[in-house]
Amino acid sequence: MMQRTSFDQMPCPVARSLDRVGEWWSILILRDAVYGLTRFDQFAQSLGIAPNMLTRRLKALCEAGLMERRLYQERPARYEYVLTDTGRDFRPVLWTLFAWGNRHLAPEGESVSLVDPETGLPVDPVVVDRRTGRPLSDGVRVVAGPAASPRLRRRFERPIAL
Amino acid sequence: MMQRTSFDQMPCPVARSLDRVGEWWSILILRDAVYGLTRFDQFAQSLGIAPNMLTRRLKALCEAGLMERRLYQERPARYEYVLTDTGRDFRPVLWTLFAWGNRHLAPEGESVSLVDPETGLPVDPVVVDRRTGRPLSDGVRVVAGPAASPRLRRRFERPIAL
DNA sequence: CAGTATCCTGTCCGATACTG
DNA sequence: CAGTATCGGACAGGATACTG
C-alpha cells in the first residue's frame, strides 16, 4: 500500500517536478540556498527546522540533483551544501511563487520585495515567451511532445490550455 | 505538538504561498483546473486520486481562495469547481514548474510541450521584469518591503540575492 | 454522478538527546 | 560545528463501501 503515488513516472513535467521538490521544506531550503546559505547550521537557524528533517531534505535534494554536498574542510571533515546548475535553474519557480504570494497573501502590504540592485527599483516578475517576448496568458497550450506515448498523444490530440 | 509549522505567519511570500498550495495534490488539481476540468469526476479520473482526498483538497483550495464551488444544477444539486482570479493567477508558477521539469527531468525528450496555438511554435517560458523587460537573473535582490517588521528589516539590511 | 464515511498505513515533522 | 539516533504525534493519502 502506497502512502502516495510517485509522480516521477507521470508524463506531466509539473508532476515530475513536484516529485523532486514537492516537500514543504525542500523549496524553502532552495530559497535559502539561493540566498547564499551553504552550511547545515545556517539552514537550521534560518528555517527553524528540526535537524533530522534538515538532514533528510538536504539528502533528498542532493539525490534529486538540485544540490551538492561538498567537502570544504578536512580534519575535521566539514561539508557545505551548494546549488547545482539544475538547482539554480529552479529560481524562476521561486520568483513566480514569491510574486504570487506578494500579490495575494500580503493584505497589509509587502513585507519583502524584489528589486533591481542597480536601480533600486521594484522588479515585477512576468513570464514571457523567450522567442517572441510576449507574456504567456490565455493563449498557451499543452501539446504532445516528441517523446509522447500514443496514449498521451491521444489525450492531447486537441491542444489544452495551460 | 505540531505536525508541521504553519508557514502562513512567515514574512516570506514563498513560505506563505506554500502554506496554501504546498500539498502534493493541490498543484496538480490546479493544473487540471487550468486544463479546463471542473467536475469532481473529471478530477478524480484525471488524477487517479482517492475520492476522500479529492474532497479534502478541493475544500482546502476553496478555503484558500483559489477555487470556487458553484452550483451548476439544482435537483439534484450539482457543483462544479472553478478557478478564482487568484487561482488563475497561479498559472505562472505552473508554467515555470512545467518548464523546469521539461528542462531537467525529461531525459528522453519532452513528452508534452508548450506551444503558441496560433503559430504552433514552441513556447519557452522566461521570467522577466515587467517594467524593463529584462530577464531576471543573478541581479535580483530581496529587500524589506513597506510592511516589514524591524526585525525583518534588519535581516534584509543588505539586499539578498534571489 | 457526486460525493461521504470508515479504516488503515506511511511518513512528514517536531522534540530531544547525544556524538566526533 | 555538523550532524545522528530515537521517540511520538498528526495527518496526508490509499482503499473500499456506501448514499441521494
Structure description:
Two copies of one chain form a homodimer. Chain A has helices spanning 13-21, 24-35, 40-47, 51-63, 85-88, 91-104, 150-155, and strands spanning 67-73, 78-83, 112-115, 125-129, 141-144, 160-161. By secondary structure, chain A is an alpha+beta fold. In chain A, the strands form two sheets. In chain A, strands 1-2 form a two-stranded antiparallel sheet. In chain A, strand 1 and strand 2 form a beta hairpin. The longest helix of chain A has 14 residues, at 91-104. Chain A is globular. The interface between A and B is large, with 83 and 83 residues. Strand 3 of chain A pairs antiparallel with strand 5 (141-144) of chain B, so a sheet runs across the interface. Chain B binds a DNA duplex (20 and 20 nucleotides) through helix 3 and helix 4.
What would a concise description of this structure say?
The structure is a homodimer of 162-residue chains. Chain A has 162 residues and is an alpha+beta fold.
